[in-house]
Amino acid sequence: MTLLKVPLCFLLFGFLVTETQTLMFTPERGTSVNISKQAIGSLCKVCSGVERKCEESLLLKGDNPVWVEFTCAQPENVFRVEIIRKIECTTKSCDGDIMQVDSDVNRWLDFHRRLTWNLKASLSKSVRVDFIRFGSGMRQIPPSENCPDMRTYTLKTSKKTGTAVVGKFCKSGFIRSAQVLNEGSFSLDVPPSVLVIQSDRFAVSVGENIKSLAKITLSLPHGTSAELLSPNFPESFPDDGKMEWYFELTAEQRAAVEFLELTEPPCFKKETAVKYRGGGGGRTLERRLTDTQPLQSQGNFSLILSNCEIDRRRHASPGLSLKLKVTSSMPPVLCSVDMKKFKGFSLQLERLKLSSKCEMKINSVIMEKITVASGNVSQLSFQDCNPGDITVTANRVIGCSHMKDCPKSSVPLAAPSLPDCLPSDLDAVTWSLRPPPKGTVELTSLIGPLEQSLSGDLCHDSVVTLTEDNGATLGHFCPQGAITKVQIHESHVSVKVTRADGQALISSAKAVFAARLKEEISERYIFTVTPKKDSSLLLATPGWPAGMASYATVSWIVLLPPKTEAHLEFISLSQPKCESRHTNIRVQTFNSLEEDYSRREDEEADQISVYQSFYLNMSNCMPERGDFSVITKLTIQKNQVLIIIASVVAALVLLFVAVLVAVCFIIRKKKKKLNHLVSIYNPDGTNFQPGPGHNGFPKSREDNESHVYASIEDSLVYTHLLRKGAEMGIYTESDPYEPVTVQADSLASKDANNMETGVYQEYPVSAQQAPPLPNRPPSNSNALVDNVIYEGRPQLEEHSTKMEARLEPEGGD
Which fold has domain 530-650? Predict the structure, then answer.
């Protein structure tokens, strides 16, 4: 369909100037357009054709272009446009199997539009409209309401006695399909300036041989409900008519029917009634409208509303109208919970939504909160309870009054495996750890290193929360961090693991921590941190952002990877004004008796680099006002000092190689210069040249006169004398080394204090010089001293043996 607006034209009739608007469009084949008046009393008319015949309404058919003229400037306020199409069905098929909302509706954008499909079935069949084949279902609304998207659908049925409105519907609901007997219509109403969605499509097919005006099919999931209206609601239901609703349920579902609004007419013949067909055993059950409606169970069922022949002799007979509500539910779920299987655990179930219809029972008693104590077996039941209606938590207490009564080994903290009959999974599990007086709680992570969650950051998996007995939160922790162990002194500690949204509880698969109740430590908190190379992490004081308790202390034992260094930056530091003592931030490396870094509250904290594993200690004062809280950023990277040393060594090696190559080149060049040819005259007529590749000297000097020279080179004079020095008496061979007698026992002599050399003497170290953290890993200083001294003794003895062997005279004398 083509639609074209023509600029306004003005018609002069006497002294009256009338403003008009002209449009041109082409109807599609099989489509008619009805332009009708909706504003009564308006003088505006619609005209068409060459004769320009003007009427109150206009019905256009065919596929030829048509000019339409309105005798007013704003016809959209007076007229509405209805696009009509026909679908006819035989006993087997329909001439159009899809009803699609297309662009024709959008072409009349300024008008109130209606797109109508007229449906016609054979005499013994109905026409079925399927809503969910190409989209979602429908829901019924009262006639006075409109859909949120301003696109309202209406289903009508036609009989000889007149037309009945089956209902108004919006998108998104539980209604799957609708069938109308013999004839009917399905239409879409759109107000001005609202675009329609052209993807809306509905399947059309031949329906059943129904006995009612219409049949609506619904599918109700568990825990849902639908409100339905009788035809023409709130007006009269047609005389002697029937309306059927068909509900699709599973075998486990139940359906409760409730009549919300009922108006019964005075009957002349027959009686109003409601029939239930199907459900339990497929039998038919009839009830009066004023009776309590039975609970439907065991699958699908039909609800059929029947009207009587109304006594019209009485004035103002109300007729039959009904508003009903159908709610699906499940039968009670029985669940036996045996807490004997889980040592020390108790179970809590609590309703979250008071508005829900969830009903919990323990031993047949309805309760809002249920507790199954440790070691008990309880019978629970749940009615209409969805996973979001109930929260399920488990608790266990682990403690001892004296250290001798505490568990000797670590206790794994793992959640119990609860039965599947519970309506919800385990949401959280809490372990209450209660050490004896002056005892310590030690937690070693079994799910990998942890990181502290700061600034509201959410964990991707479960969240671990540590809380002290005074209610103070030590911190929230997530997996995938660097903290491997936590120690808390002289405090009861609660370890709570809560699952993140949509995630399973991490502790349901394995233990979260290995817990120990051990002897006291001098620090209040100790964290063991094992960072990775090329990583950064944040270390926050306990309870951050709240300040630490007065005089509280905390230490982090930071174990650096080999060949790395750590950069510490205090990115968030809150210092109090102290009434007594001072706050302190200290850094001290292992095996060091002195601190590498120390700052009080009246000193400015700056960055520091540490080149080996270290302790980070913090302590609070008695604040007069303010709080002491710190966030330390720890960055791990390769040791720059080692990189510089390696670079220097590499440079020296390259320089040494270059010098060695140069020296070898110079020596070789000098050898070539000295390796010149020497001519020797021999009286016997034999000429030769010294050097490789020539005939050389004779093998025996006594057999020739090679020692007789006519002329002698200076460079040969002393060479001959050295080779034959003994015969000529010029030089006598002797060993240039003169043996020296040395007493080997002097190597094992004692010093002036009679202390044996090479024997390690352990010196006592004052306790005041040790690192401030108690229970530190044992110092390696002694081991290093042992290595230096005792690893050198075999070399020293071997050197002495070689010296003695060389000092012994050759030949034994």
Answer: Jelly Rolls (2.60.120)
